[in-house]
Design a protein that fits this description.
The structure holds two protein chains of two kinds. By secondary structure, chain A is of the alpha/beta class. Chain A has twelve helices and nine strands. The longest helix of chain A is centred in the last third of the chain and has 20 residues, at about 295-310. In chain A, about 50% of the residues are buried. By secondary structure, chain B is an alpha/beta fold. Chain B has helices spanning about 80-90, 110-120, 145-150, 165-180, 190, 200-205, 215-230, 240-250, 265, 290-300, 315-320, 335-345, 350-360, 360-365, and strands at about 5-15, 20-25, 30-35, 50, 55-60, 60-65, 90-95, 125-130, 155, 180-185, 195-200, 210, 235-240, 260, 305-310, 380-390, 410-420, 425. In chain B, the strands form three sheets. In chain B, strands 1, 2, 3, 4, 5, 16, 17 and 18 form an eight-stranded mixed sheet that branches. An eight-stranded parallel sheet of chain B has the order 6-7-8-9-10-13-14-15, sandwiched between helices. In chain B, about 55% of the residues are buried. Classes of the chains: A alpha/beta, B alpha/beta. The interface of A and B includes residues 139 and 205 of A.
């Protein structure tokens, strides 16, 4: 029965480049598939054979710990042959272009390529040049779709729904692909989204995506069900986006007194890696009653398994 | 050369306020001998066989004020021979070349080389620019006087802007003393830092750094404030925003200067960038539809003097990259006239205004006797089938680089013949 319904609803896209390209049906399909892997990941035998014989290449041009390991583990648990390439040591350093790298890998007949790249749109370019499915593991500041999907899954697991919830996304929105993907996904699923950032870290015309913008964090957190913090990229400090870490913490760090403005049962999320004491009070980050940060990592593997399975088919 | 007689053409020569049906006689010396309605079968010598143009248009050869040629240093992108063939197919008979070459056109000896190459390899008139600063570094001025004596038509850092206000005032003083024309690419570097496209919703959506329109406006306002005190020949290469047009309109009555616009900014907007089309990574960037409309209005009411192609040939390798890594600029000299005619066909701008911005206006700013069909002048002109439909295909482009910003666009109006000094150098 279950397989029948899965066949009836098929994913509309060949590649997973961004949440922007997905329909609500696509998202529900991925989230539903992910649910089935959560249990598996907690059990003793974590191995399935759905991707046996398939080849997955992880192409990471930017350093990544959790996303890369999460994708690698996801592929292995599904039985795929996973090859992770650290592009720091590759032909790119010798002057090869992304397209040429893509052509080279394509000749080895992979079934899926997972790519992270520092340039926005790199995954789009890659997808035009290869025959297999491309999964975006983060491109520049544009999108990080699996992060948004795992965030949605975490929210659903905790709150049983997304529609009607009030979500605050706080911090360095300007440089954040996580923020963009989450904005598309959460607004599509019917949440009300507040964006909280100093003007220097607020992207131009972001309100046109149907979100409310706040420079005052307390106002932005008012009555929120979810508080999603973003990593402050320290290199921003040198280009004078901000004056100092301590001032940023004072105004935009998540502290108990600011969290008081959110709903009493509000949960705290963070895509990691965290800067404790800069964007988040270390006690809040570790508060098991409020923080779901570890759960996000756990569900990340399930979401990536679902994506690999769906886009490999 | 035999004498040539053309009859039954629609002649548009804004310099001489000619817009009438008539003919054109080109003498044996390649000069214009007669023009206008008086040239018709009734008063031509009977033994001559005139060419009946059957209502096609004759325009003066276009003067394109902003063209990048790859010589020296980037010959694989475009050389004088390929440039002139591309130009001729678009009705362009005179070009002003930018100094952003390798090495940069910033000293007298390289000008000699350039003039020799231009003379030997080019079939069109080449008017080279030298840079404002040595090696386009924005620090030390070049020798305006000596370079001008060698035949440099104007000074510009091309794709770069003079950021230092004190240096800009000194450049203006020198230009004033020596009577030189300076052309500024208006962009504040700090505001435009890392920017790739217009700042706004598209940039936010694509995750690309934006270039705000204020980056252009700040430089324009600064330069015009300086120009008020230091009256020199000053030209703003390209406007891109409604806000700039507004400033220009306000100031044109008080200060004497001129400005141009790229055909790209008149015809396209930021939405055309779509899914990271690197061929539309341009400088200045394509902006909102409101900006494009303001530029068209500015051309219509003559706030903007000149249309340029901003022809910047880039090979495929420089464009087949991520948006951040891709080179900036589009090839456009071949489609300059046809794309400009879109503004006439859709009723936005009068034909004479468009032709003026492509011929006599740039010639006047440059102080050259081109872009007109005055009797006794070189017969540089093009014949245009104003209604002929065609589709831009990169494989049909003549330029060495195929990075057109309007691939697959349907255009109306095509150059069928181009003449330089009376010689037919292009024919469909």
């Amino acid at each position: 029965m279950a397989t029948k319904t899965n066949k009836a609803i098929k994913i509309s896209q060949k590649h997973l480049l961004g949440i922007q390209d997905l329909s609500i049906n696509d998202i529900n399909l991925i989230l539903k598939e992910s649910q089935s892997f959560i249990k598996l990941n907690q059990s003793k035998n974590k191995r399935l054979n759905v991707l046996t014989g398939k080849t997955q290449i992880n192409l990471f041009f930017e350093p990544s710990t959790r996303t890369q390991s999460s994708f690698e583990l996801a592929g292995k648990r599904l039985g795929a042959d996973v090859m992770s390439m650290n592009m720091g040591n590759s032909a790119i350093k010798k002057g090869e272009t992304l397209i040429d790298t893509a052509m080279t890998l394509n000749a080895m007949h992979p079934d899926i390529i997972v790519i992270r790249h520092q340039d926005s749109g790199a995954c789009n370019l890659l997808s035009q040049k290869v025959n297999c499915a491309v999964l975006n593991a983060g491109d520049g500041r544009r999108e990080h779709p699996t992060q948004a999907l795992l965030d949605a899954l975490t929210i659903i697991n905790r709150k049983k729904k997304i529609e009607g919830l009030k979500v605050a996304i706080c911090g360095d929105i300007l440089h954040s692909r996580v923020a963009r993907s989450n904005i598309y996904l959460l607004t599509m699923l019917g949440a009300e989204v507040n964006i909280v950032a100093p003007s220097n870290l607020m992207p131009k015309e972001i309100e046109k995506f149907g979100v409310n913008t706040f420079t005052d964090m307390k106002k932005g957190l008012m009555d929120c069900d979810i508080v999603m913090m973003l990593r402050l990229q320290n290199e921003r400090m040198t280009s004078s986006f901000l004056s100092s870490n301590r001032e940023y913490y004072e105004y935009y760090g998540l502290t108990p007194d600011k969290l008081d403005y959110a709903k009493p049962d509000a949960i705290i999320m963070h895509p990691g890696p965290m800067n404790r004491g800069i964007e988040i009070d270390t006690r809040l980050a570790d508060d098991i009653n409020k923080s779901v940060i570890k759960e996000q990592v756990e569900l990340g593997v399930a979401v990536r398994m679902a994506c690999l399975k769906i886009f490999c088919e | 050369m035999k004498k040539q007689y053309f009859i039954n053409a629609n002649i548009v020569d804004p310099y001489n306020s000619v817009n009438e049906n008539g003919g054109l006689i080109v003498g044996e010396n390649g000069k214009i001998e007669a023009i206008g309605k008086k040239v018709n079968t009734n008063n031509l010598p009977t033994r001559e066989k005139p060419i009946d143009l059957k209502g096609k248009y004759i325009f003066p050869g276009l003067v394109d004020m902003r063209v990048f040629v790859g010589e020296p240093g980037y010959e694989y992108k475009e050389n004088f021979r390929t440039l002139s063939n591309a130009a001729l197919s678009g009705g362009v008979t005179s070009v002003v070349t930018m100094p952003n070459t390798d090495p940069v056109i910033d000293n007298v000896s390289i000008v000699d080389f350039l003039k020799r190459r231009g003379r030997d390899k080019s079939k069109i008139n080449i008017f080279p620019c030298a840079s404002l600063t040595q090696n386009i570094e924005g620090t030390n001025m070049t020798e305006f006087g000596l370079l001008a004596n060698k035949g440099i038509i104007a000074f510009t850092d091309g794709t770069k802007t003079i950021q230092n206000t004190s240096l800009m005032s000194r450049i203006m003083n020198s230009a004033k003393d020596l009577g030189c024309l300076i052309m500024q690419h208006a962009e504040d570097y700090h505001l435009a830092k890392n920017g790739m496209i217009n700042s706004g919703i598209i940039a936010t959506k694509l995750g690309l750094s934006g270039i705000p329109d204020i980056a252009e406006r700040i430089i324009i306002e600064r330069d015009l404030a300086l120009l008020e005190k230091i009256k020199c020949r000053y030209h703003i290469s390209q406007l891109s925003s409604a806000s700039s047009v507004e400033v220009i309109k306000d100031r044109k009555n008080e200060v004497k200067f001129t400005c141009g616009v790229s055909i790209n900014n008149l015809s396209l907007n930021e939405n055309d960038i779509g899914d990271f089309k690197t061929f539309l990574k341009l400088s200045p960037p394509l902006r909102k539809e409101e900006d494009r409309e303001a530029l068209v209005q500015g051309l219509k009411d003559k706030t903007i003097d000149v249309i340029v192609s901003d022809h910047k040939p880039e090979d495929e390798e420089s464009k087949r990259l991520t948006f951040a890594q891709a080179a900036t600029g589009a090839s456009g000299i071949e489609t300059l006239l046809s794309l400009s005619l879109e503004l006439y066909h859709n009723g936005s701008v009068k034909l004479e205004t468009i032709i003026q911005a492509l011929t006599s206006n740039p010639a006047k700013i440059l102080n050259i006797n081109k872009g007109n069909l005055t009797i006794g002048n070189d017969a540089d002109f093009c014949i245009v089938d104003l209604d002929k439909p065609w589709i831009v295909k990169k494989e049909n482009l003549i330029s060495k680089s195929k990075n057109t910003s309007i691939e697959d666009k349907k255009l109306q109006g095509k150059v069928t013949n181009t003449f330089v000094k009376g010689q037919e150098l292009f024919k469909i």
